[in-house]
Design a protein that fits this description.
The protein has helices at residues 16-33, 48-51, 57-69, 95-101, 115-125, 186-189; strands at residues 36-40, 44-45, 74-78, 87-88, 91-94, 108-114, 138-141, 143-147, 157-162, 172-173, 179-185. It is α+β, with helices and mostly antiparallel strands. The longest helix is centred in the N-terminal third of the chain and has 18 residues, at 16-33.
Amino acid sequence: VDFELIPVTPRIPEDPEAARAILDYEVLLSKELDQVIARSLVELDAIQANNQSRETNLGSFVADIFREAGHAEIALLNGGTIRSNTIYGPGNLRKRDVLSILPFENTITTLRMTGAQIHQALEHGLATVGMKADGRFPQVSGLRAEFDARRAPGSRVVSIRVRGVHPSDPWEPIDRQRSYSVATNAYLARGGDGYQVLTRVP
């Protein structure tokens, strides 16, 4: 078989016909992607290191959306889901921004998990806090967790409180035996970022 390696460098001139075709598509895509779909009154934190090491307003917002869309009591997603490494707003949000923040084709999946399994998932997600930023860090909705990063991994969660779907529902200690509906993404449901506990639930 004859072949020739052609290094692709800036020295290679553009093909005029291909350049025209690409420009046409760029115009079409920009018209679609630059549509304003929301407006934020505050800065939204999509900085990757922040979302992989602590709760952020954007992480909480995305988790709220997962919980509502999944008709679930709780939402759990990995901080590594949130990309773009940018601060947005205050101001308009475009489709382009949303695709930059959530670039993966990652469907919302609703699981049934016991309180004990939720506790185990949070322990896993918090295991590297204080040591390194990690995509596993949990961004959540519908629960409040207190943890102590000075403790050994696997025993850091101090308390978990949950409430129902309605904002008026009171916060109560999680019941380790009870089953809760948990919205997450397909990546975590398959055990991504080490969340193996999610693969052992209905």
